[in-house]
Amino acid sequence: MRRTVILAVAAVLSPYSLLAQQAPPSSNPHHPMTLPAPVNLKVLPKDISSKELMTIMRGYSQALGVHCNFCHVINEQTHHPDFTSDEKTEKNTARTMITMNNEINNKYLSQIHDPDAAPDQKTVTCGTCHRGHSMPVTYKPPPEREGPPHGGMGHPDTPAKP
Question: Who wins on pLDDT, 158 or 143?
Fold first, then answer.
């Protein structure tokens, strides 16, 4: 279940969690740089690996269509994000939204036992509402269709039986 929540969250929000320091650039392109251990984690698991954290952060970034500086202040001396700082309100908003996603998925959607639904259809992510925008996208219902409102008696897209 924890893995599902992390993966669900990965497809979501914008970067908010933090790393202890900026990792130095690798001088050898054949040896990847070592990422520092994550610190100041208040919502994500404290034992998360740096690699897993960066995957989640990239997912948040894509789900909101933003870059690291959306949630993280930029250090004026290094010109890099200060991942440990809690100075930006967007970072705390992201924490709140991650908590909300986790609660919706764990408390409510975990109760859905629809054998026809794929796991991603029973999970909300940041992308569920944000769809690549920093603010949630307003839902616009599709134009009215002719005929019965939901086709058949099954799922809404089930064709009506003759």
Answer: 143
Per DSSP, the three-state class of 40 is coil
**φ/ψ (deg, to 5) at 89:** -65, -30
Q: Give the β-pairing of 18-19 and 38-39.
A: antiparallel
Q: Which of 12, 7, 10, 2 is nearest to 129 (CA)?
A: 12
Domains identified in the chain, total number = 1
Nearest to 75, CA basis, from 12, 126, 22, 15:
22
CA 90 centroid distance within chain: 14
Question: Residue 32's domain spans which residues?
Answer: 2-130
Evaluate whether 65 touches 137 at the Cβ level (below 8 Å): no
What SS3 string covers 94-118?
A: HHHHHHHHHHHHHHHHHHCCCCCCC
Residue 26 is assigned to a structural domain of this protein: yes
Q: Could you give the percent of the chain with pLDDT greater than 70?
A: 69
Query: Is residue 126 one of the residues assigned to a domain?
Result: yes
- The pLDDT score that the predictor gives to residue 22 is 41
